[in-house]
Design a protein that fits this description.
CATH superfamily of the largest domain: P-loop containing nucleotide triphosphate hydrolases
CATH class of the largest domain: Alpha Beta
Keywords: ATP-binding, Nucleotide-binding, Transcription, Transcription regulation
Radius of gyration: 24 Å
CATH topology of the largest domain: Rossmann fold
Organism: Leptospirillum ferriphilum YSK
Largest sheet: 6 strands, antiparallel, barrel
Helix content: 25-40%
CATH architecture of the largest domain: 3-Layer(aba) Sandwich
Protein name: Fis family transcriptional regulator
GO molecular function: ATP binding; cyclic-di-GMP binding; sequence-specific DNA binding
Structural class: alpha/beta
Distance between the termini: 16 Å
Strand content: 15-25%
Pfam families: AAA_lid_14 (PF25601), HTH_8 (PF02954), PilZ (PF07238), Sigma54_activat (PF00158)
Length: 475
């Protein structure tokens, strides 16, 4: 069964194969958060990179790269390779138009008591998609998809407002020191290198730097260097002229040019290929660059902020990162503390994120139950703020109770350490309830699948649901 629900599209699309003369047109018959199917007589070879370009009346032109997958007589499947937030936002807007066609005066059949927020296009899109993959996805795939949605849907225009109102700053001394440095160095032209573990919120801090900089009115262009296919990296960073290589069907601006008069944020800079490190260093030294296929020098007008979860000094010693580029980027180095060093901020941050996510989705914010709060405090949060945000994003969507419960967070119960209490029978029943709650969430209330997993009969499952007063999730 397909893990991601697809939406009918029937949109004209053009495509070209990188490093090949082949190009063509077709119809984008359906599209999902991960890919789609193109109906066309021109079919590229499987597992090749293609440039895609299609338009929508209200959104405009969407252009990105994708990898071609299996083919048949009608056309071929594609898997998107979104490498920047602008492309993600364009996809979000396009899918929203496809997912928000319900009659706004009609109540949702999923929950007739739900408020009209379910009829908002973005909420409709998310819920339709989640209804499909929450039931059928494995835990790892589910968490990956949550992270994808969380990044694509919630880093948008709101983040360009006052960071003090849209970002949680906290009260821990380590975070206060980070914000002190940002306010000092953001107004300068010095490059900034943000260092921290995965999920500590480096992009959030880069946006804060942009807000306090002299380029705050310009664009903020975030790029994940680790997600850029190496064969496309130079074209995406510097841009190219029409006809500069086979497959270059039109002139294309690169990230450096798109960020003019603003900020270019290069996340995971430690993953940038060595050949591109040399070219980036030259741009930083000479403050000019060229599109591929052009001799015209374009002045560098953007401020560059970089981030990494690697020890770049160690990468320099290993020869995987250039020492001269490291010194050039390390104008100001700021270390972002992991969440485990901000324990006082944990619950206030969780409550802030619930409020923010609920507001973005047009839902009434629910409180965290005492059990959920204890679970949040006891969890190690190795994925830091990102993991916490993903868990709360999931909880806001799947929660069917007045409060957010521990099982809504999707965190393994083994990480929930609480003092044992009660008789042996009470402890056993409590454990059985936790297992059944997790199964209900994992299988979307499918009693047959729950019975198969637990090795019991369907009537036994129903009896346990009744015994523990649990609700069957809505499909």
């Amino acid at each position: 069964m397909r893990q991601f629900e697809r939406f009918s599209s029937d949109t004209t699309i053009s495509f070209s194969v990188f490093q090949n003369r082949a190009s063509g047109q077709g119809i984008l018959k359906n599209i999902s958060l991960s890919g789609g199917f193109i109906e066309s007589r021109q079919i590229p070879p499987p597992n090749t990179w293609v440039t895609l370009k299609f338009s929508h009346d209200s959104i405009g032109t969407i252009q990105t790269a994708a990898r071609s997958l299996r083919e048949d007589k009608r056309g071929f499947s594609i898997h998107f390779a979104w490498t920047d937030r602008t492309a993600l936002s364009s996809l979000r807007d396009f899918l929203t138009t496809l997912g928000g066609t319900r009659d706004p005066g009609r109540k949702s059949p999923e929950d007739p008591t739900e408020e009209s927020s379910l009829d908002q296009p973005i909420d409709s899109l998310i819920r339709k998609t989640w209804a499909s993959f929450v039931r059928n996805s494995s835990g790892s795939l589910l968490n990956t998809m949550i992270s994808w949605c969380h990044s694509a849907f919630f880093y948008d225009a709101e983040e360009t407002e006052n960071p003090e109102e849209t970002f949680f700053q906290g009260s821990s001394p380590s975070i206060a020191d980070v914000y002190r440095k940002i306010r000092i160095f953001a107004p300068t032209s010095l490059p900034v290198l943000l260092m921290g573990e995965t999920g500590t919120g480096k992009e959030v801090f880069s946006r804060t730097i942009h807000h306090y900089s002299a380029q705050k009115e310009g664009p903020f262009v975030p790029v994940n260097c680790g997600a850029i296919p190496e064969s496309l990296a130079e074209s995406l960073l510097f841009g190219h002229e029409k006809g500069s290589f086979t497959g270059a069907i039109a002139q294309q601006k690169g990230y450096l040019e798109s960020a003019a008069d603003g900020t270019l944020f290069l996340d995971e800079i430690g993953d940038l290929p060595l050949p591109l490190q040399v070219k980036l260093l030259r741009v930083l030294q000479e403050r000019v660059f060229n599109r591929i296929g052009s001799h015209v020098q374009i002045p560098l007008k953007c401020r560059i902020v970089t981030a990494t979860n690697k020890d770049l000094k160690e990468e320099v010693r290993k020869g995987t990162f250039r020492q001269d580029l490291f010194y050039r980027l390390e104008g100001v180095a700021i270390s972002i503390p992991p969440l485990r060093e901000r324990t006082d901020d944990l619950l206030p941050l969780a409550q802030f994120l619930v409020q923010k996510i609920s507001r973005k989705m047009g839902l009434i914010a629910k409180a965290l139950s005492p059990e959920a709060e204890r679970l949040i405090q006891s969890h190690p949060w190795k994925g830091n703020v990102r993991e916490l945000g993903n868990a709360l994003h999931r909880a806001v969507i799947v929660s069917r109770h007045i409060e957010i419960l521990p099982e809504d967070l999707g965190i393994a119960s083994s990480s929930f350490v609480k003092e044992p209490s009660g008789s042996l029978r009470e402890r056993r029943e409590r454990h059985e309830k936790e297992i059944l709650s997790a199964c209900l969430l994992r299988h979307g209330g499918n009693v047959g699948k729950i019975a198969d997993e637990l090795g019991i009969s369907r009537p036994s499952v129903y009896n346990m649901i009744k015994k523990f007063a649990l609700d069957l999730p809505n499909s």
